[in-house]
Amino acid sequence: MTEPRWLDEREQRAWRALMAMQDGLAEFLERRLRQRSGLSTADYQVLAHLSEAPAGRLRSFELGGLLRWEKSRLSQHLGRMETRGLVSRERCRTDQRGAVIAITARGGELIEAAAPQHTADVRDAFIDQLTEAELETLAAIGDKVRTRLAALTPKGQPSSGT
Amino acid sequence: MTEPRWLDEREQRAWRALMAMQDGLAEFLERRLRQRSGLSTADYQVLAHLSEAPAGRLRSFELGGLLRWEKSRLSQHLGRMETRGLVSRERCRTDQRGAVIAITARGGELIEAAAPQHTADVRDAFIDQLTEAELETLAAIGDKVRTRLAALTPKGQPSSGT
DNA sequence: AGCAGTTGGTTCACATGTCAACCAGATCGG
DNA sequence: CCGATCTGGTTGACATGTGAACCAACTGCT
């Protein structure tokens, strides 16, 4: 087995900086959001998608597609949000097994209040620290990597592959 | 209350690309690592730090500082890793309450086997997709944001290293 | 129509992370 | 020394994420 190409200085630095930034950013945003609105980032994303959807409602699987969540995760999370009165589940007319998820009035109020704060936090901690060129580069990087990941993940995972 | 500055096109794009990349990358690496070595990324990081430490051992709080994990998380995780025979806990001589965490032979073998694979995955999905300039920019971004986060966080963050 | 296979969702068991409370051993001020 | 306080670490209750099993409704094919 050949010795792999380890990461050199520059590569290490970029990789670690990214990971560290990510952890810090996620933790920061999660904490602020929860403190000020009682929402987790997961709640926030669900409500954001619902509030942008026509009539504030989406089929469960559509929501799952947008969020890229596992279906069991979505189901569990919606159950909790329903208990808290943030969303409601309705039966679908055209497909008898389907669930239509609707944002409630309370959910709507909460995300309306949370959104400006959250946006300000994202700006403050992230966007406003960077130049336009950096933002461009970042977007390009993100797209490249996502494309690559899509290519590497062909629906089923190659268990042996080596 | 004044209307906040929402994110413009460019900003949205960069932010979403970053978040999407992050999710995809984390999930990809987690899956590969677990499939091929039975380790989670959390396990991997613990073992990586231990294997680089003198004599393969660290005080629990030192390890926590390096990982930036909450102490209860570390304690819980080490408990599980101990059960699986990846690390062992010893009493500290100089401080009677202290725990010294040591990597076991089995833990050593596992990370030795996992490291090249993991590095290859990081390269394949991420590093090798980017130009040197992009890596530089990314490192700069990461540093800036981390610095900003440190300034925004009321608590003191025990900067490990330096 | 009828039956196989797919799809949308839920549920269970379990892995992992967080918070607060707790305990025991250090430390410090008299 | 003694007590107050700090520090390192563990624990228990609970929130959240994952995978497999399951159920019921839809689709396709004959």
From TrEMBL, chains A, B:
Cleaved signal peptide residues: none
Domain HTH marR-type: 11-147
Family matches, as InterPro entries: HTH_MarR-typ (IPR000835), MarR/SlyA-like (IPR039422), WH-like_DNA-bd_sf (IPR036388), WH_DNA-bd_sf (IPR036390)
Pfam families the UniProt entry points to: MarR_2
Source domain of life: Bacteria
Protein name in UniProt: MarR family transcriptional regulator
Organism of provenance: Actinoplanes palleronii
Phylogenetic classification of the source organism: Bacteria, Bacillati, Actinomycetota, Actinomycetes, Micromonosporales
